[in-house]
Amino acid sequence: FPHAEVQVAPILWITLALIIAGGIVFATSLKTRRSLPPVDLPGGESLPKTPLQKKAARALFAVVLLTAIAAGCIAWFWPLAWWEEDAVRHPVTATMLGGLIVYLFFTMEAQSLEERDDGSFDERDSAILARSGSGVGGAMMVVVAAWMVGLMEAHHETRLVPTYYLYLIFWSCVMTNVIASLAGVLLAYRRA
Questions:
Q1: pTM strictly above 0.85
Q2: How far is the C-alpha of 71 from the C-alpha of 54, rounded, in Å?
Q3: Fewest Cβ atoms closer than 10 Å to its Cβ: which of 46, 61, 91, 131?
């Protein structure tokens, strides 16, 4: 990395936090799946993907890709350089805003599916969508905790955490919220 003299601890802690947050979302989805009514199909057939499920998969892929690009740029240029150089900060911020726009379109499409009366959205979809955000709070708490521990460990001697990390914490929480919500939709569709 170009700025390797800066301590790597916060990046490692946030990576660990994201793994734990994914586990929380998965565990919450298991609980959601168990609360949904079972669907028995003849001959071992499986349910086809619903329109909501397809839209959630596309949105999750796009949001994860955009978030990974933004995180990669921040890791490559390092947070200080990212904060001080507009040529880096503006495209990274635009990339994350792009992820939010993808999520906005997903929620608008989900709402339009719900309003249609053609059978493309049923009670199961409604229950899954209503409970899809149940793991978001836990995932965000893990991410915030990882940032706090990582930053306090990295800056323990001076007890001064650079302010540009606050911006990164904000975006980490926002994107964790979006990714956990979309993942909650997809995980709830999986058969227990």
A1: no
A2: 26
A3: 46
